[in-house]
Write a structure and sequence with these properties.
The chain has 158 residues and is an all-alpha fold. The chain is 67% helix and 0% strand. It has 5 helices and no strands. Helix 1 packs antiparallel against helix 4 and helix 3 packs antiparallel against helix 4. The radius of gyration is 17 Å and the shape is elongated.
Length: 158
């Protein structure tokens, strides 16, 4: 394990990326209202939206609890103390970001705002490029082969 971990360049906080995406989707929804499906399909999408929101919250709480129990940082710019590979981290290397994306998808379905659905994918892409890639470099520096082996077993998102 390397003790020297270098944080370089600007890395935006992922919650701010998702918050900005949500604000943009709301503004777009107000000024350019999208068409949406009505009838029974709307009710089905509403139900799936609530399921997605509940699943996102459960995933988020599970990941945060796992990180706190391990005594590692929740700060995306912090230096991780431990490589987490169990719990939600056995399914996704980024369960908190996955939860944020799933939450936005759920909100999109519940509010019938297709802009929120589109912005969920934009936020996930930006988080991947601006934060996850940086975090992966830090994890590789810190944990080396152990982290590389983990990336071969567990996907970045799902």
């Amino acid at each position: 394990m390397s003790e020297t971990v270098r944080h370089t360049g600007f890395v935006p906080l992922p919650p701010l990326i998702y918050l900005a995406a949500l604000v943009v989707s709301i503004v777009l929804g107000v000024f350019v209202p999208p068409p949406w499906i009505g009838g029974i399909l709307a009710d089905i999408l509403l139900a799936f939206g609530w399921i997605a929101i509940v699943a996102a919250l459960a995933l988020w709480f599970s990941a945060v609890r796992t990180m706190r129990r391990a005594g590692t940082t929740l700060n995306p710019k912090g230096t991780p103390e431990h490589l987490l590979t169990g719990g939600p981290f056995a399914v996704s290397r980024n369960p908190i970001y996955l939860a944020a994306t799933l939450l936005m998808i759920g909100i999109a379905l519940v509010t019938a705002n297709v802009w929120t659905l589109l912005m969920a994918f934009v936020a996930a892409f930006l988080t991947g490029k601006l934060a996850v890639e940086h975090e992966e470099k830090i994890l590789t520096q810190r944990f080396g082969k152990k982290y590389r082996d983990y990336t071969k077993r567990v996907r970045r998102w799902i």
